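Milestone M4 deliverable, item 7.
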Amino acid sequence: MRIIVPLKQVPDMNQVKFDVERGRVDRSSAGTEINPFDLHALEVSVQMKENMGGTVTVISMGPCRAESSLRDALARGADNALLLEDRKFAGADTLATSYTIACAIRKLGKFDLIICGEKTVDGDTGQVGPEIAEHLGIPHIAYVSRLEVREQTMVAQCEMGGRAYTMESDFPVLLTVTKDLNIPRLPGFRDKVKARQVVVEVWGTRELADFVDISRCGVRGSPTRVHRVIIPSEENRKGKIFRNAAEEAIAEIAEDLLRHLN
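Output delivered:
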């Protein structure tokens, strides 16, 4: 089983600040980590490898510092790691990001499964995974919460809109998985030491020259434009004392509740 896991290095969203003037996340304002949803994709991939054999390759697009997240993924059980790093890839929206990753996957060659987290905590769009599938011309199944892999096919249970449905597909196929699928493992010290010895390949526009149209990458290939960012204010809890008679107080409470519901 040849499995590819795209993952993203994201800032700690509990600490990160927003650049309101430029309409973007100030990634230098907080520490970084693997996108939490991608850890569930990595975990199910490593479990498949352990049960069925095969390899797990992780791919990330970003600056050089994203290598630390790839090494974390290697420590968690991935076999190979690839970083897509080039100034011409910078500033990409979901369309340009998915296109660049899909081009890299084409260069990697044959694969059976691509498994992505359902979304990223810094973008929250859930678009990159399905877009990769569209660029590659393969089927995709989103919001997978349970998975059964057979010899020639796989069966997935998906949760969407408060309902569950079951889908079956042959290979190759792309999945996006939810946090309900598993609990990601933590790497041990020996795993981290071993991960340091693995060579992380780095590909830029030169390495992808035969596969990529540079005009579709980075800012140049991104049709999305952010006009402004608004951070909503948070209201603290408020208390209210009702001093009227019981009947009048109940009517006032009901009126307040209805007003907030509407």
